[in-house]
Design goal:
The chain is of the alpha+beta class and about 1050 residues long. The chain contains 21 helices and 51 strands. Strand 28 and strand 29 form a beta hairpin.
Length: about 1050
């Protein structure tokens, strides 16, 4: 009876919808067979591909591809849509020549279409634009080389919110359309009522030509209508097939046909025009494709015969897009983004902005090193263009690009996989990094040697774990020993920046305060700058700074040697030698400089509550010529921050602390109730709420952030614990250490010549003995009047305005005033005081979540440890431990995770705030790459460089070298990006020109071809075939093809543009 009522209700929708069709037309119903195949989530990427570890989940991607290709070959009317190239390329390379030929014929006949075409379906909150470009280009390269295929449709059906940078990227790589399923449930309800689920999305306010036709699925997910998931093996998708033999007791063809017709009209009731898309597939479906196509064949035949208003047929998103363009409709526009995403009153998917912070940091490091590896491949064309060496680079670049691309999958970098899968992602990244570092260190060794000798300086290594205070090359130094440090600058302009080298002093012990007298008996260090051409050594000033003991650095004997690396050339290196002196180590008595560990001041306050942060009777200040920070001596908290210049000084009141929220759903919460058991398949939980689900019971988890109460204020970590404050004052760097508790500490640091203030924090293991999950934030409160407004970056590109409890295009009903105001912080965010013309920016070393909940306030979530699952499919609390054993045991190892990270605070006068911020964003994404050698360089006296300058001139500060990579032995791939948005800076937001032949004069460039962003076609070709949509406020005609001219080697960039070129040498 319930099924009959459901069908009757849907038929009522049919009756009301049929009259919206144009007279004499049939509704064109596009059936889209597809499967969404996650490259890792509940199982590892390899397990999903092969079908292994079925105890976790029964899925095998290789059999999906086998089955689909077989079924397509039986009927030329059938279509199928592939997406994730990381899986498809693996399967394709395993096929026989005959099978490959069959696949190519299916692609040529358009039975097979590829959407997105990237290595993965990347996340849109945590992914940096550089990684988004790289992984998309990798997949597009495969499709172009194997099939001559260029994707034209974006398919982001599973990410948990959508960025305007992705809309911009979609247009820039040649997509005519973009489709996805998840937007905020309130926004969705409005759009469904107003029939605006499809629109023109302009992804950049600066690069305004970039727009893409965008469709949001009315179901909120990407599955078929209820009751029409025809998989035979999928646990959650095993509906009855359509049976049309009336002699069988299981006959259901009439009821199934009527229900499907009703579902079609329900879809059409929220749309305009004469075309609708019906998705036929879900997670890991079609491993027996016959079960799908057999039922769909019946539905197509019966629906078309039964209803003259409908034309049902096999299709794909490419055909659907073409049909939409041909209709000539005018669409509404969208210019902002779709963050944050919520699927119910208390279910804001804002926790994943921070989940698994160590994986997020490793991805950011790996992406930066990938750019260095590509740059080295280009320099090899100048130094040693031997085919075997170029092949070595290509293989290393392919492996690292694939690994970084994989980790940008929307269940990887998001931190929403099971922990054993996250550990596997780290392993895949680490193996790729091993190979890349091997290639890079060999290249550096070949560039540097001892003067007067043909012998290269051997033994170069890299220190990937320096964030954990581990660097074997430099920490193995003994008295009289030396380590050579090569500092490579991957930025396209020279830079001066402090560098730190880790050493160990067995005589030091920072558990006790060290006095000036004590330091005389400790390690003694000298640092020399080496003229890599002439070979002379010049002593330079250095500080030897103790590293505070913490859970991330349990060894109190660790020290860091800090020195200034002056004027490192663009895409080139400076050389330094760090010497651990013994009593006889005096190279030149006239020029010798050395440093011992600097003295420290240290005190402890047992009860900070008797000294409130507002008490300014006892303060101390650290400063350089650009910035100063004043602290309350009793609590160690910031009191004020000031910026100085030659003609002015500005200051703000500021307090900073580490705080935490308690997590809703924790067993230790007062009034805790065990949530009702949901035994549905994890994949179904992820894409569809339970019909009996009560949003009030939503727990905080890997996806969801939800404090215990909706109005909860974060509590200070320090609580009643004593606070130990330490001040370390060197010549180059000054630090304030603040030990807040047994599981949280921080260092506030200013450096000579640097305008930003660094806050380095160490958090963990987060205690959960009270059975309460905790979510840690770095909190900043200022006296700036910011009008409750925060601006955050979109994947490292343009900044978007976020007003408290508001959305730009619809009226928000507020249920979660904390979690509902969190946004992605991929790189940076800032608040402004327009009256005082001041801006305070915060920059992160990895992607995180950020909010501004009060005027003048910002908080950044940095770590999470939870004891409940949020019922979104991962079926595992985010209770991350230090590591995990390998397959097949997958046992947690160690206690809760300890995380170390850093933020930069930048107080700027408004007139040049964005110039400072944009410059620092580039510096943090591409820091100097350090190579270490402990070979006895001191006996050789000097170093001689064999490197050649890659860039003949520096790029201006508003132009970034996004990509420089060797393509074969006679070509370079170059991407140049304008780094400023319209109106951000009176000088640097303007148009800029770059002559590629002059920039890369050493390569003797003969010709330049402009390509699209993913480099799979000429830019002019893409423009010629790109669909021009008509939207409200635009004068373009639907279906028109844009014409464009590609420039030569003279490049003109306007705000936020990125242009791609193939240079022929």
């Amino acid at each position: 009876m319930n099924d009959c009522l459901k069908i009757f209700a849907l038929l009522c929708v049919y009756a009301s919808s049929i009259f919206t069709l144009e007279t004499g037309t049939r509704l064109q119903v596009h059936l889209i067979p597809h499967s969404h195949d996650d490259p890792g989530w509940l199982k590892t990427v390899d397990q999903y591909y092969t079908g292994s570890n079925s105890s976790v989940y029964l899925a095998s991607v290789q059999y999906i591809f086998d089955s689909v290709v077989t079924e397509l070959s039986k009927d030329t009317d059938r279509h199928y849509t592939f997406c994730e190239i990381s899986f498809f390329s693996r399967w394709y390379h395993e096929q026989s020549p005959q099978r490959k030929a069959l696949v190519k014929s299916l692609v040529a006949s358009e039975q097979v279409q590829f959407v997105n075409g990237g290595w993965v379906m990347h996340d849109e909150a945590s992914a940096h634009y550089q990684s988004m470009i790289d992984q998309t280009a990798l997949g597009h390269k495969f499709l172009k080389e194997e099939f001559g295929y260029t994707p034209t449709v974006g398919w982001q059906i599973d990410p948990f919110g959508h960025s305007n940078t992705h809309a911009w990227l979609s247009s820039a790589v040649g997509f005519d359309s973009l489709f996805f399923g998840r937007i905020d449930y309130q926004d969705q309800a409005i759009r469904m009522k107003e029939r605006t689920m499809e629109m023109i999305w302009k992804g950049s306010a600066s690069d305004s030509e970039k727009e893409v036709f965008t469709g949001v699925f009315t179901s909120g997910n990407y599955g078929p209508p209820d009751g029409f998931c025809f998989d035979s093996s999928c646990v959650y998708c095993r509906n009855d097939p359509v049976v049309e033999d009336p002699l069988l007791q299981t006959y259901n063809a009439d009821a199934m046909t009527e229900a499907f017709i009703a579902a079609i009209y329900e879809e059409q009731s929220h749309s305009v025009g004469n075309h609708v898309m019906i998705k036929m597939g879900a997670d890991f479906t079609y491993d027996n494709a016959n079960t799908w196509y057999k039922s769909m064949d019946v539905l197509i035949r019966r629906v078309n015969a039964l209803d003259p208003q409908l034309h049902l047929f096999y299709s794909d998103p490419v055909q659907y897009t073409r049909a939409r363009a041909a209709e000539g409709l005018t669409w509404t526009q969208k210019t902002d983004d779709f963050f944050p995403y919520s699927d119910s009153e208390h279910s804001f998917w804002t926790g994943y902005f921070t989940s698994r912070p160590t994986l997020k940091l490793l991805e950011r490091y790996s992406s930066g090193l990938l750019q260095v590896l590509k740059q080295f491949s280009a320099s090899t064309l100048l130094l040693n263009p031997i085919s075997s060496i170029l092949a070595t680079y290509n293989e290393a670049i392919q492996q690292l690009t694939a690994a970084v691309g994989l980790v940008n999958h929307h269940d990887a970098i998001t931190g929403t996989s099971k922990q054993h899968v996250a550990e596997d992602y780290k392993k895949i990244l680490s193996l790729a990094l091993d190979r890349a570092e091997s290639v890079l260190t060999a290249a550096v060794a070949g560039q540097f040697g001892l003067k007067g000798s043909d012998k290269a300086l051997e033994g170069f290594t890299m220190c990937r774990m320096v964030n954990e205070s581990v660097c074997a090359a430099s920490q193995s130094l003994q008295g009289g020993g030396a380590v050579t440090v090569v500092a490579y600058n991957p930025l396209p302009r020279k830079r001066s920046q402090q560098l730190s080298v880790l050493v160990t002093d067995s005589n030091s012990n920072m558990n006790n305060a060290r006095s000036e007298k004590d330091s005389q008996h400790s390690v003694n260090i000298s640092v020399y700058s080496v003229d890599s051409v002439g070979g002379s050594w010049t002593p330079i000033v250095c500080d030897v700074i103790p590293i505070p003991a913490s859970n991330a650095n349990p060894n109190p004997n660790n020290l860091k040697v800090v020195f200034m690396a002056e004027n490192i050339p663009s895409l080139a290196s400076n050389v330094y030698v760090v010497v651990m002196n013994d009593q006889s180590a005096r190279r030149d008595s006239d020029s010798f400089m050395s440093s011992s560990p600097v003295p420290v001041e240290q005190w402890e306050v047992a009860d900070t509550k008797q000294f409130p942060s507002t008490d300014k009777s006892a303060v101390f200040t650290i400063s350089n010529q650009l910035v100063s920070v004043t602290f309350n001596k009793h609590t160690g908290e910031m009191v004020s921050m000031a910026r100085s210049s030659s003609d002015s000084k500005v200051a703000i009141s500021i307090s900073q602390d580490l705080k935490y929220y308690t997590s809703y759903g924790s067993p230790g919460n007062k009034g805790y109730r065990q949530p009702p058991q949901d035994d549905r398949d994890p994949h179904l939980k992820n894409i569809r709420r339970h019909l009996g689900y009560n949003s009030d019971e939503q727990a905080s988890g890997a996806y969801i952030f939800r404090p215990t109460t909706s109005t909860e204020s974060a509590a200070s970590i320090r609580g009643n614990d004593p606070v130990k404050v330490t001040v370390v004052r060197g010549q180059l760097v000054t630090e304030v250490w603040r030990n807040l508790s047994s599981w949280a500490s921080q260092v506030t640091r200013i450096r000579e010549g640097q305008a930003s203030v660094e806050i380095e924090w160490t958090v963990g293991p987060i205690p959960v003995d009270d059975q309460v999950g905790k979510e840690v934030v770095l909190d900043l409160q200022t006296d700036l009047l910011t009008d409750l407004t925060l601006l955050t970056d979109s994947n490292g590109r343009e900044f978007l305005t976020r007003r408290l409890n508001e959305r730009p295009t619809w009226s928000l009903e507020v249920f979660e005033p904390v979690a509902g105001n969190y946004y992605p912080l991929t790189v940076a965010g800032y608040v402004r005081d327009e009256q005082r013309q001041l801006q305070l920016s915060v920059l992160a070393d990895r992607s995180q979540g950020v909010a501004s909940l009060r005027d003048g306030q910002m908080e950044v979530m940095i770590h999470r440890r939870l004891l409940a699952d949020d019922n979104k499919g991962v079926d595992e609390p985010l209770n991350e431990t230090a590591s995990m054993s390998h397959f097949p045991t997958w046992q947690r190892v160690g206690g809760g995770l300890v995380v170390r990270g850093s933020h930069h605070l930048l107080l700027s006068p408004r007139r040049h705030a964005m110039a400072e911020l944009r410059g620092l964003m580039d510096q943090l994404f591409l820091p100097p790459t350090l190579f270490y050698s402990t070979a006895d360089s001191s006996k050789g006296e000097v170093m001689a460089a064999k490197a050649q300058q890659v860039l003949s001139q520096d790029l201006p500060v508003n132009v970034h070298l996004v990509t420089l990579e060797a393509v074969g032995s006679r070509s370079l791939l170059v991407r140049l990006g304008h780094q400023f948005a319209v109106g951000e800076d009176p000088e640097w937001s303007g148009e800029v020109e770059v002559d590629l032949k002059q920039l890369l004069a050493a390569f003797e460039v003969s010709a330049c071809e402009e390509l699209n962003l993913s480099a799979n076609q000429l830019w002019a070709e893409q423009q010629a075939k790109k669909i021009r949509w008509k939207s409200s406020g635009s004068g373009d005609s639907a279906g028109e093809r844009g014409q464009g001219e590609a420039g030569g080697c003279q490049v003109r960039l306007t705000a936020m543009q990125i242009k791609t070129f193939l240079l022929h040498l």
